[in-house]
TrEMBL record:
NCBIfam families: PRK00668.1. GO terms for cellular component: cytoplasm; lamellipodium; nucleus; ruffle. Its EC number is 2.7.4.6. This is Nucleoside diphosphate kinase. One of its GO terms (molecular function) is nucleoside diphosphate kinase activity. It comes from Mola mola. The active site is at H117. One of its GO terms (biological process) is GTP biosynthetic process. CDD domains: NDPk_I (cd04413). Its cofactor is Mg(2+). PANTHER family: NUCLEOSIDE DIPHOSPHATE KINASE (PTHR11349).
Length: 151
């Protein structure tokens, strides 16, 4: 539904490479609604929980360490099927498999520096939004262009 929400984060490499504006621009222009946004230094504890499903992977420790190496821009975006569409906008996990036109396909080359995170399902989006944001950080506002985006 149009009330679908996803969690997106510009990773420390994306922040360092000045990609925050470009990424926000793409989500805004697609027609999604910004519900929350903050620049945060994530703790290792938060990141361990965020990537809990990957805890047995050989790259888990390095991933948690890299993600806590600098600030990330955490966001919540809302709109029709936004979880699925955001994953398409991101591209594949490995930038080498990501098509040009996607964020990873346009701006990066290595899986360990793939500049952006996006929730992979509605269930994980709900978990991640809850993990990264307090309820009072999620803004409720009327998008004045919604009738030009939805019919
Ligand atoms: P996703 O970010 O596309 O959802 P996941 O499989 O959830 O991909 O992995 C989370 C993150 O872990 C990836 O974005 C990437 O930064 C890192 N990662 C995934 N696979 C590898 C790997 O094989 N080597 C190193 N890092 C990886
Ligand atoms: Mg994932």
């Amino acid at each position: 539904s149009a009330n679908c929400r996803t969690f997106v984060a510009v990773k420390p490499d994306g922040v360092q490479r000045k990609m925050v504006g470009e990424i926000v621009r793409r989500f805004e222009r697609r027609g999604f609604k910004l519900v929350a946004l903050k620049l945060v230094q994530a703790s290792e504890d938060l990141l361990k929980e965020h990537y809990w499903d990957l805890r047995s992977k050989p790259f888990y420790r390095e991933l948690v360490s890299f993600m806590s190496s600098g600030p990330v821009v955490a966001m919540v975006w809302e709109g029709l099927d936004v979880v699925k569409t955001a994953r398409k906008m991101l591209g594949e996990t490995n930038p080498a498999d990501s098509l040009p036109g996607s964020i990873r396909g346009d701006y990066c080359v290595e899986v360990g520096r793939n500049v952006i995170h996006g929730s992979d399902s509605v269930e994980s989006a709900q978990k991640e939004i809850h993990l990264w944001f307090h309820p009072n950080e999620l803004q409720s506002w009327e998008n004045s262009s919604s009738r030009w985006i939805y019919n």
